[in-house]
Specification:
It is a single chain. By secondary structure, this protein is α/β, with parallel strands linked by helices. About 40% of the residues lie in helices and about 20% in strands. It contains 13 helices and 17 strands. Helix 2 crosses helix 7, helix 5 crosses helix 6 and helix 10 packs antiparallel against helix 11. It is globular, with a radius of gyration of 24 Å.
């Protein structure tokens, strides 16, 4: 059975032999490194890089870790993110509680996978992370780590030990590492930039424009907007403006382009396992564009029952992975089902990005069920036919997509 450590006191009294700390170079991770170093516990720091969206570079993180005599091991997991972890979220149009595109939901299970591999390489008997009780990332990391290696000790010491941010900053300043108290806590990956803490904690306070770095205020966007064309195959984007592309190439381009036009700003209150709601601000320009197009294409291609059932499966999958179940059998099965349902989602959409909005101007799909594709042919196919009780929307949709032979 996995062993969990949930406080600094427990970490001190049952100290592991060698701890791998997931480390980005921020306040919480740096504080934990100094805490472990003072107690002479062997530590290796691991930075998992996913795209170029991180707020702290590897060289700075390495220097900060070295302050406490800790070596930093860096792994670039970008390829896995774009090929294995992002596609399921697109198939599911995964939005947290319908509010905003998921962010750390996609990266935490990937980070756990890398951590388990690296822990094995370095002979670590524990993996530690710094998520707190106000962050769902704690559950995502801990559950993923436990699912991947049941022999590892999983340490989440800030679940049970609350150390105020100002105390952490003060301790680190005394050690020679400076942090600005006004700096927000930012978790960024190519799909979403999530901002917490600092001045964004209180939803009653109007957000300062300085919070945002990926998106422009709508008043400062170009007046004319921009049009782009995306082509999907099997529910995933494969071309932009007629040029073949991959998710790894497309997402950064769309982040820059859509962000320039103010697309992809979100803020809302996130439920946590402990009942308190955490205010989060997110920027997700590419995610907004791709999911908007994907939903429009699904609406054109799915029959009524397909649409209803697919929506239920997508919602269940999203809830499961948000709460740490990425590697569970049910989540994996639902993910395969969503990808399979998306097989007929092939088509091209013309989109307009303008002052924070994404509009679908034109849609064409060879599998679309819209009447104008068939016109009088459909009337002729159906003429003289007696509607029996077995002739459902799903039956018609399947028959039309398969060339109508299945209808008679």
């Amino acid at each position: 059975m996995p062993h969990f450590i949930s406080s600094l006191d427990e970490l001190e009294t049952t100290a592991p032999r060698h701890v791998l700390v997931l480390y980005s170079g921020g306040v919480d991770g740096s504080y934990l490194l100094q805490w472990l170093a003072r107690r002479r516990i062997e530590v290796t720091a691991l930075q998992v890089r996913i795209g170029e969206a991180g707020e702290v570079d590897s060289d700075l993180a390495k220097r900060r870790a070295a302050t406490f005599g800790v070596s930093l091991h860096t792994v670039d997991a970008s390829q896995e993110f774009f090929t294995q972890f992002l596609p399921p979220a697109i198939h599911a149009d995964a939005y947290y509680q319908g509010q905003y595109p998921v962010g750390s939901t996609l990266t935490r299970p990937l980070m756990a996978k890398v951590a388990v591999d690296v822990a094995g390489q370095f002979g670590c008997d524990a993996v530690a992370h710094t998520a707190t009780y106000t962050q769902n990332s704690s559950l995502r990391l801990s559950a993923s780590l436990a699912a991947l290696d049941r022999e590892l000790v999983v340490a989440a010491p800030f679940l049970g030990s609350h150390v105020p941010r100002e105390v952490k900053v003060q301790v680190l300043q005394e050690a020679g590492i400076g942090f600005d108290m006004g700096v927000y806590s930012v978790d960024a990956n190519p799909w979403a930039r999530v901002i917490e803490s600092g001045g964004v904690e209180d939803p009653e306070v109007i957000l300062d424009e300085g919070v945002f770095t990926w998106t422009r205020d709508i008043d400062d966007c170009p007046a004319g907007g921009v049009e782009i064309e995306l082509r999907f195959e099997g529910g995933l984007p494969v071309e932009m403006d007629g040029q073949p592309t991959t998710l790894g190439d497309l997402v950064p381009v769309l982040n820059e382009l859509a962000g320039l036009h103010g697309v992809g700003r979100f803020s809302g209150l996130e439920d946590t396992p402990f009942g308190v709601k955490n205010h989060e601000v997110r920027e997700a320009p590419a995610a907004t564009v791709i999911t908007t197009a994907h939903r429009a294409l699904a609406n054109a291609v799915y029959g009524m029952r397909e649409h209803t059932i697919r929506a239920a499966i997508a919602r269940e999958w999203t809830d499961l992975v948000v709460h740490g179940g990425w590697y569970g059998h049910l989540a994996q099965s639902l993910s395969r089902c969503l990808a399979d349902l998306d097989e007929p989602l092939t088509g091209t959409l013309l989109l307009r990005l303008h002052r924070g909005a994404v509009r679908v101007l034109r849609l064409k799909s060879e599998n679309g069920l819209y009447y104008s594709r068939f016109g009088q042919d459909f009337t002729r196919w159906m003429s003289g036919y007696s509607y029996g009780p077995w002739l459902t929307q799903a039956t018609i949709a399947d028959a039309v997509r398969s060339g109508h032979d299945g209808l008679w």
